[in-house]
Amino acid sequence: MPRSPGFGIGLAAVLASVVIWGAQLPVAKSAYGVMDAVTLTALRYGLAVLLLIAMLRAREGSAAFALGARPWLLTFAGVCGMCGSPLLVFAGLAYTTPEHAVIILALQPSMSALAQWGLRGARLPVFTVGSIVVAFAGVVLVVTGHGGPAVSGKLIGDVLVAAGAACWVTYSLLLALFPGVSALRFTTMSCLIGTACILAIAAASILLGSARLPTLPQAVSVAPQIAYLALAGVSAAMLMWNFGSARVGAQNSILLLNLMPVETYLIRYWQGAQFTTQEWLGAGLVIAALVANNLYQRRDTIRAA
Questions:
Q1: Distance (Å, rounded) from C-alpha 41 to C-alpha 199?
Q2: What CA–CA distance (Å, rounded) separates 149 from 196?
Q3: E strands in the chain
Q4: Is there a contact between 301 and 143 (Cβ–Cβ < 8 Å)?
Q5: In sequence order, what are the residues at sequence separation of 6 or more whose Cβ sits closer than 8 angstroms to the Cβ of residue 211?
Q6: Residue 226 and residue 13: Cα distance in Å, rounded?
Q7: CA distance 87 to 186
Q8: pLDDT tens-place string over residues 158-177
Q9: 108 or 55: which carries more pLDDT confidence?
Q10: pLDDT 10s digits, 261-301
Q11: Residue 24 and residue 22: Cα distance in Å, rounded?
């Protein structure tokens, strides 16, 4: 199948968003000493949505804030992708480790492939299926190669992260159902809906005592983490993800997410962590699988032309 117009720039946009997200788990985990997951997520999206609203109003005007012809579908996308996914992943991260979280998030290509096969009958080429399997195997090698002590309650965290991954796959697939909507508008409207849900959940959690507002010194101490998670991780990365995913397709976008654990481990290596040969081998398999599938798609495009 020929590539859509703007495939190259779309691929670059998706890759940039993945690079930003690759650092999110270590950054978020470092803030958990003074802030719980629900409050951190609420602050993150509360700040990000303000910037997105200002950008959308300046670029497309007040009319862009209408829900459009599919209001319930857009609402579902916002609740699922911009509320369910971040809340579940960040809540799970409080119980498990970044290494566990990234391997679970790496299941998203398989989730997406199964969803597209079940909903659209879109059978993937054997080579692409093989690339996904090899990339997943590489992620497993990277994450399991170092070992470490068991984390209390990690099973609960793993289940929460898996649910968040499923929500994100759903959001990515729904993006394809809004071809006439700009990336900025879809991102802003879905984020606005999702943020409203997150703030409602955070308010209820604070009232019930399961979450807490940070003191001013605590908030200041994690201001860099909040800024990164909100401005880069939501505003910039989400815009680039939606822009790029609309041009390269959900399957290609989610396949690139296999780079996230590689980056996470590189960050930890820079911080002084030591890794085994198995982990470096796993990283090589992930990159090789992605490059091989890209070359296969290039050859397929040339043949079609």
A1: 9
A2: 38
A3: none
A4: no
A5: 36, 38, 39, 202, 205
A6: 22
A7: 20
A8: 889 989 999 989 998 888 88
A9: 55
A10: 888 878 877 877 677 788 778 878 887 887 787 677 667 66
A11: 6
